[in-house]
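Convert to structure. Protein one:
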Amino acid sequence: MLRGAVVDVWVATASDDGAPYLVPLSLAWIDERAVIAVRSNSATARDLRDRPNARLGLGPTRNVVMMDAVRERELAATVDEALGTVYAVQADWDPRQSPGFVLFVLRPIRVQAWREANEIAGRDLMREGRWLV
């Protein structure tokens, strides 16, 4: 899905009381999964531990990809050497060099993309974890 240049993404999570939290992060796309790195004590990490769902927004307003994803696993950035290396290459920074970072592997369950209002009807690219295109 994502290849080449570094990809920045907006990641939205929610706390147990439903309060939303939105943060910009670097994204790696590894084995059909979105991988993000965050500080282990951040609101995003806390929210993903408490509630497995996240929404990711990629790209500018007129060429946006929205991804609903579920937390598949969390691991210290230093635990999985192969995952850490691929993340570092794609994100153009290495969270293994910064103490206290964890990686969250997120499995997409819905992906939508559109540019203009006339594309809204066909925007679903993935639904219930299955690619439609």
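Protein two, convert as well:
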Amino acid sequence: MRTPVVAGNWKMHLTREEAAGLTRDIKEKVGGEENVKVILCPPFTALDGIVGECRGSNIQVGAQNMHWEDEGAFTGEISPLMLKDIGCKYVILGHSERRHVFGETDEDVNKKLLSAVRHNIRPILCVGETLEQREEGVTDTTCREQLEKGLEGLSQENAENIIIAYEPVWAIGTGKSASAKDAEHVNNYIRIILSGIFSKAAELIPILYGGSVKPDNIDELMAQPNIDGVLVGGASLNGDSFTEIIRKSALKTS
């Protein structure tokens, strides 16, 4: 059985002091939880401090983005070597806000993913459709294209080191969530695509759901066979809400 994964994407929120306080709260409540992988993804300014706060617990730290080059004249960017130096184990790539607000392409995401894997940073690859694409009935096609292009060139050997997150764009930060049935449909379709690319290794790849995940919908989401965890936005900024999501997700292995 795949171990459930709960990742908190703090986006552009929290000062270093606020991030440290939230981390201590989460660590105190679920830092010893062994039945779920917990990943905190704070802003770049807080990364170093949060890595320190998480020492002695089962909580891992990830970044929200990175460049594909190791170094160079890329003003305002962060390299995989910098993340590795801090102690980051994970990185979110291809989030819809990176794609739709900052114009990242599937090719950009692919270069970042291959770079992350090369540096032993585990990528969380996000895919998902816009409301317009959903209404046009091309959700599956959209996710397939993003997956195939994002994973191009990834070896079978490294396939089990990735995480996929299905995040419908229309459900991110809107308060709307895909129904558990709809999320399971897409996650199952993603599993089928991964099986075609990576064969047996596809069964080892966690597939998460993200999009207005809250304590009151986590039980139904985690009850689905192909939802292996969640990528949480707003609810991850509240210690009580986030730890409740973590505890309920851990029940999937019991």
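Residues 5-238 form a domain with the TIM Barrel fold (CATH 3.20.20.70). The mean pLDDT is 95.
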